[in-house]
Amino acid sequence: MRRLVGVYLWLFSRLPLRLNHAVGATLGWLAWVLPTPLKRRSLVHLARAFPDRDPAWHRRIARASLLETGKAFSEAPLLWQADSAQLSRWLHGIEGSEVISAAIAQGRGVCFAVPHLGSWEFAGLYGTVFGPLTTVYRPPRQAFLESVLRQARERTGARLVPANRSGIKALKQALQSKEHIGILPDQAPKGNSGILAPFFGQPARTMLLVSRLTHAERIPIVFAFAQRLPQGQGFRYHFVSAPDTLYSTDPVEAVTALNQRLEELIRRHPEQYLWSYRRWPRTRPDSSVCAGNPGRKAKEG
């Protein structure tokens, strides 16, 4: 396994971005033409999220999403070895620059909410240009990979902390120091943590972390994603403000607002969302179930 990881890191870190993305798209195409779990889950999840769309649309978006997933796999080693100057050369425009400027100007730190949309690796690495950044991550199952990931993702100055109590404490300390934090807001909480809230009309277990870290002091929350441009041209950064309801002391209202904003971003570029990710429970709660209330369960389609 170590040798395979070494080959993967060495090979893809040396391919120019355009060729890198071409190879990644080929890997994603293979995941589409073969009967892979990624293909099955993508189609199932798209049918749940967009029941008003026909199967042909589901298949087109699922295929495009898997091609983008292949690019995410191939581009990671290249991004991990890049410095800030190289990342800047790959950046082709920022939409919503006034949003991040206004948030930083408050001088209280910013919570970057970066979903699995576009290139979240680029979004995290480039995010350090806006100031000191502490990001939370889920340690990999293979222990030897943790040091590799930490070293790579901290290359441009970010500080990585694990998704546990010590990590949450570090996030709080960063905000107390008026620094920025980064969170994947669509990361499915482990076990029964988080609460159920609508996501594309289907109950999805949703994290409370964003709300809990920000609502008391009304820390600015900025949704961000790096759109992957076609033919290896680079990336375009997008910043979107958070709705006021995300600061609600009512946890149900807060996480519902979180998911609604995520939906808005995903609808802009559905082909760049990670539809193979298990955002919903494997068993489907009754559609009336929300906020963790018990209810009937049905098998996932």
Tell me what you see in this structure.
This protein has one domain (2-299). Helix content is 46%, strand content 17%. A hairpin with a 2-residue loop joins strand 6 and strand 7. The chain has helices at residues 2-12, 17-33, 37-49, 55-80, 84-90, 97-105, 120-126, 143-153, 165-176, 209-214, 251-268, and strands at 91-95, 111-113, 133-137, 159-162, 180-183, 195-199, 202-206, 221-228, 235-241, 283-285, 297-299. The strands form 3 sheets. Strands 1-9-8-2-5-3-4 form a 7-stranded mixed sheet. The longest helix has 26 residues, at 55-80. The radius of gyration is 19 Å and the shape is globular. It is of the alpha/beta class and 301 residues long. Residues 291-301 have low confidence and may be disordered.
Key traits:
alpha/beta; seven-stranded mixed beta sheet; 11 helices; 46% helix; disordered C terminus
* Oligomer category: single chain
In DSSP terms, counting alpha (H) and pi (I) runs of 4 or more, how many helices? 11
Beta content: 15-25%
Number of strands: 11
The structural domain count equals 1
Structural class: alpha/beta
Order of helices and strands: HHHHHEHEHEHEHEEEHEEHEE
User: Stretches where pLDDT falls below 50 for ≥5 residues?
Assistant: 291-301
Query: Please, what is the average pLDDT?
Result: 91
Shape estimate? globular
